[in-house]
Amino acid sequence: MCGIAGFVGEGSRNDLEKMIAAIKHRGPDDEGVFWAGGVGLAHARLSIIDLSERGRQPMFNDDKTIGVVFNGEIYNFKKLREQLAKRGYKFKSGTDTEGIIRLFEDIGEDCFKELEGMFAIGLYDFKQKKLILARDRMGKKPLYWAIFNGTLMFASELKALLKHPLFKKELDLESLNKYLLHEYVPTPQSIFKNVRKLEPATYLVYKNGEVEKKEFWKISYGEGKLSFDESLRLLGEKFEESVKARLVSDVPVGVFLSGGLDSSAVAYYAQKNYVGKIKTFSAGFEEKSFDESGYAQEVADFLGTEHYNFLIKARDALEIIPNIEEFIDEPMADASAVPTYLLAKHTRRFVTVALSGDGGDELFAGYPTFRAFEAANIYKKIPAFLRNNFTDKLLRLVPDSEKNFNLGFALKKFVGAIGDEEKYIHHNWLGSFRREERENLFRCEVWDTIKAGNEFEEVDHYWNSISADEIKNKILGLYARTYLMDNVLVKTDRVSMKNSLEVRCPLLDRDFVELANSLPYSFKYKRFTQKYIFKKLMEGKLPKNIVYRKKKGFGMPLARWLKNELKGFCEETLSEKKIKSQNLFDYEYIEKLKREHFNGKTDHRKKIWTLMVFSLWYEKYMI
Questions:
Q1: CA–CA separation, 550 vs 565, rounded Å?
Q2: Annotated catalytic residue: which of 2, 111, 505, 570?
Q3: What was the pLDDT predicted at 548?
């Protein structure tokens, strides 16, 4: 796991060094810089496989005609090395990076189809004078790129691009509009104009000033014909293989353990295939409705892991929040980034690699929104006049709560999106500001410039491109390409890499994903039981109360903190002076949100936090 940066065109060695220095936290163990003839490649290394100098990047082939910088892990690299060795290729290191070079020498751009793992790659072919950028199938590793004045620049994080002297810093208002809806800027857009995130399962070729992009894998659903029992058996085999592959490391490995089903399943197979006791890590809160540490301890005791729990106190989070844009350099309003950062910081004291349960909810319909979707289909059958005159009004009377699960807030979100199209309803449930709310939030002249844009254009694109026999499986595909990739994985990548910790996700293994996607939706969601087949897989392997307990989520008591410990900071961050200086939003509308929340009238935690994160970002990067 590392950080990469580079450019083709104008720029000096000093510019390149500044770019890679900006993301040194991603790889504090070593640094490599190559610059010649308008080509710059830079790498900050977190040593995981082959800790020797032979693993240093940029790495080149024998005649120096191919140079590579690479962030990630290739889990099938040993198998690829064996195949390449039979075809006469020789290796000087034990790294997966060298395998990428040899594979490119052997089959060219088709090499990306053969790589199993998580990766962001910058490869320069000096003979063909072309740059190739590539990103893994699930979008696990980040890769930004931009062209300014004929110079293409790329990096793992935005902050590195800002160090290039040709970079033009200009806020993209359409991206801001999407951020306020989704709580993140969806790929391929970024918060800056003319800066893009490379799409997943895609490689970009830049030659003679022209850009061409090619997709090497697609998400598809419903092609399998396996019985439930056969599917169950294969899921277990594929999952165990995936966990075993991610235990391979030359540095200590551990597991994030929340006590939920996904992380507990990862811990089960990790302990089963680990020599000795594997280390597991959890974080708890003083506020009981947010605390899952007891469940994590129960799983650790049951599996016999070496467990470490970290108690997060309000003051810990309050120290992090003012500097949240230090590790998330594009606005992303998932408040769980704060406790996840603290957990990663704690974990890094003991290990360099951690396995996580990310991806299970998207593969097996694990979020509460999937139950809401089923309920919505039933609710819509109630005659409209009854819903409008009685049911909706009754639901809106349910009071809000500061607890982790806020029934009043959830019901209001549910009713608010009930009439939306199937492909949009989940995004409105998950996000912050609906369209009519954004119209009130933006200044009139700003809204006039963006209102004609389609804030759902990425959702529409994926909806049309994902092949699925069932609408509900197609919705799972939307989750994989939106919420998982641009929220969950971004959060995990930034907070872990800020602490120089590599996180691996066994549930996002290509073979496991393709198997899960081939199953009918009824295997995943059955009679209001979410993740049905995955729960059946883990029966008998984990305590029954762990397998079947309700999903909690890893949040923090934001609603209460905004009224108390964070109130002063909230007022400062969203002050009239700061909001008006941005010249984007109507301050009176924001003031109304704050007052209603502080007075306990309405839970606006999501809206206020979304605005706070943007304001913090704006102050750091735009002023």
A1: 29
A2: 2
A3: 93
